[in-house]
Design brief:
Layout lengths: L1 H95 L34 E8 L7 E8 L6 H12 L6 E7 L2 E4 L21 E6 L3 H12 L14 E4 L6 E4 L4 H5 L4 H8 L15 H20 L2 H17 L19 H17 L10 E12 L2 E2 L14 E2 L25 H9 L4 E8 L8 E2 L5 E2 L3 E7 L2 H6 L11 H4 L4 E12 L4 E9 L1
Length: about 550
């Protein structure tokens, strides 16, 4: 029995060892599979990135090919449209203007000269008029009579009656009330009895005379003859004064000279402004008087109004921008709004008269308006850049009463700080000594990202800072103890207060010898499209 038990135990041990070896082998296989899986995953990522790159390349090439094909198609379409428009315009012009038509027949009509058919018995080499100028004369009884002109193309088949009919239809007249006449030897000749004759005949439009006819009312023929005779009696151009020879015009196309006066140079200079130019050009002037005698009171009044209007536009053009950019900031930071404060205490800037009140204003109303998104200032303005804090301290001087008790004796300082360089003797320039408990906070402040400068070191301004006029002190220079406090755009949208980060600085910075504190920053008004450079001064 003992031997059988030992054999059974030995067999079970062997089975256990075999199972343990199988487990170890399978674990090794599992590790290998895991390593292969990791390798396959890495290869899959690499292949996926390559596939994405190839897809992007394919998409880019596809878009490039589409743009090229679209550009070619657009260019071809534009060329086809341009060619079509050129052909259509050329065809239209050839239809409307005979001189532009192609010369196919040898007997085609040339521009300005018409060839007469030989069958009519006339000389074919004779040049005849192919156009006629018709002047519509209307005696309106005013100072200047109406005189309009239009030209007609004619040929050998057009009669005087045809031209009268066309001219009356053009101007809306009755051909029974109007007639055509020509000026022959400076005398008007009525063509009422020549209605059936052709215009190109010598007795109507002779080639040796100008092709010009007049459309006149039959009842005004006598007045037209009188007008023509009066024109013939006018003096020649040589008899006109020197001023009248400067400019001449032709009236009714008859060659009669009419003197006109030259426009003054200062009027021509105002030609880009049509309203003023026409008003000055058409004003009534007496040219035989002296220069200043021609000026009237109305002209001075008009120019005075123009000057006043221009100055008003110049001074009032920035009124809206000034209110939006300057007075908006002044109302929010200087005057303030009750209830809008970070400390619960409302205080106007003009009520700040002591150092504790200055600390309370900076931590309360100023902090709320500048950093709280719910403030009235932040609804229209956004702080950008950095805040610059700058103080000026008065230098020490010899006390007037050195026998003061030790319990009440203090260091004596100058009353004012000087703005004139060098500042020695009136403005303190030594490095400030902060208490030991404030040194870690000072080190943390100077090491903060974006903070530049050191509140304990005096230096002149490194930027273009102008001098600031004060009320207690006459003038403050751009020097002093200063540092830049950054305004992070991310913090501006996520915080409601920020001045608490430097609240420890004010009791150690604003001491009894401090004469001046300036808070300088920039606000952006994106609604009005401008920036406001702000400098709050506490004396």
């Amino acid at each position: 029995m003992a031997e059988e038990g030992e054999a059974t135990l030995a067999e079970e041990r062997n089975q256990i060892k075999q199972l343990q070896s199988d487990i170890a082998r399978k674990r090794e296989q599992l590790d290998r599979l895991r390593q292969r899986r990791v390798a396959f995953d890495d290869e899959l990522k690499q292949r996926s990135s390559e596939l994405n790159y190839i897809k992007e390349e394919h998409k880019f090439e596809k878009k490039k090919a589409q743009k090229a094909s679209q550009y070619d198609a657009t260019q071809k379409t534009a060329e086809a449209e341009s060619h079509f428009m050129n052909e259509e315009v050329r065809r239209f012009l050839q239809e409307k203007i005979p001189s532009m038509a192609p010369q196919e027949a040898p007997d085609a009509i040339d521009q300005g000269v018409a060839e007469v058919d030989v069958t009519q018995g006339e000389d074919p080499s004779k040049n005849l008029h192919d156009t006629v100028l018709v002047s519509y004369v209307n005696f309106s009884g005013e100072k200047k009579d109406d005189d309009y002109k239009v030209s007609y193309r004619i040929d050998h088949s057009i009669t005087v009656g045809d031209l009268l009919k066309d001219a009356c239809n053009y101007w809306g007249c009755s051909r029974h009330d109007y007639t055509l006449c020509k000026v022959e030897n400076d005398e008007p000749k009525d063509l009422e009895g020549f209605m059936e004759q052709f215009l190109q005949e010598d007795q109507i439009l002779s080639p040796q005379e100008s092709s010009h006819l007049h459309l006149v009312r039959k009842s005004d023929m006598e007045q037209f003859r009188v007008t023509q005779s009066l024109r013939q009696r006018r003096p020649e151009a040589e008899d006109l004064p020197e001023e009248g020879k400067k400019l001449m015009t032709l009236k009714h196309g008859l060659g009669n000279a009419t003197a006109e006066h030259v426009t003054e140079p200062f009027v021509e200079a105002l030609k880009p402004w049509p309203g003023v130019y026409k008003m000055l050009k058409k004003r009534r002037r007496k040219h035989d008087m002296q220069k200043w005698l021609r000026s009237r009171l109305a002209e001075f009044v008009v120019f005075g109004i123009m000057i006043i209007f221009s100055l008003s536009c110049f001074f009032l053009r920035t009124e809206l921008e000034s209110y939006l950019l300057r007075l908006g900031v002044q109302n929010a930071l200087v005057e303030g709004f009750p209830g809008q404060t970070s400390t619960g205490v409302f205080l106007k800037m003009k009520d700040v008269k002591t150092v504790p009140l200055a600390e309370q204003y900076l931590a309360g109303c100023f902090d709320y308006q500048l950093f709280n998104p719910q403030s009235t200032l932040r609804k229209f303005y956004t702080p950008v850049g950095s805040l610059r804090f700058r103080v000026q301290k008065a230098d020490t001087r010899l006390c007037m009463r050195p026998e003061m008790p030790a319990t009440t004796a203090r260091d004596c300082s100058q009353v004012e700080v000087s703005s004139n360089f060098p500042f020695t003797g009136t403005q303190k320039m030594q490095t400030l000594d902060f208490p030991a408990d404030a040194l870690p906070l000072l080190s943390q402040l100077t090491s903060t990202s974006g903070v530049s400068g050191n509140p304990t070191i005096w230096r002149t301004s490194t930027v273009a800072t102008d001098e600031i006029w004060g009320i207690i002190g006459a003038l403050y220079s751009s020097a002093g103890y200063q540092f830049w406090f950054p305004i992070n755009p991310v913090d501006v949208s996520n915080i409601t207060t920020k001045m608490g980060e430097i609240a420890w600085l004010w009791p150690r910075w604003l001491t009894s010898d401090t004469r001046f504190l300036a808070v300088e920053f920039t606000l952006a008004n994106y609604n009005a499209g401008g920036y406001v450079s702000c400098a709050l001064v506490l004396e």
